[in-house]
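[User]
Um, tokens okay?
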Amino acid sequence: MNRWGWMAEFESAEQLLAAARAARSAGYAAQAYAPFAIDGLPEALGIQRSRIPAFTFAGAAVGGAAAYAMQWASAVLLRPINVGGRPLHSWPMFIPVSFEMMILGGALAAVLAFFVSAGLPRLRHPVFAAEDFELASRHRFFLVLHRDDPHYEDRAAARWLDERRPLRRVEVPA
């Protein structure tokens, strides 16, 4: 068997949403593809909240703290210079660089977390080889059941998709 899974093509977002809800209640870990965002689809598929915001915050905190610590160490410990009787630890002058490094740290952490969570760089995904999959970016809606799902059984999955009355069911080659 050289099949990665089955893909059902639906005509409307409502049909896809209903099929996604049914797939989750049947125990399938389905994937859905649509030309636009559909309210309720992530919940219907059981997609959990992203952890990217937490990584972004952590990256921002580390970047800001590292920049502040670097400036403090250079001004107070390594090269203390008394300029006009000002204190060595003059925190207001450390804020602009710390803020910029906080932004940079958060942005880098967000990009890295996105790449890791999305499994990128993945140059080829099996659904790209499915017949007429490019319609997902125009006007069709697709639900995919794949063999990586522990609940997946080839014939049962094909029968289950046919019961949802899609426009058609196509094979997703491995």
Observations:
- The first helix runs from residue 13 to 26.
- The chain is about 45% helix and 15% strand.
- Residues 3-49+125-173 form one domain.
- The chain has a mean pLDDT of 92.
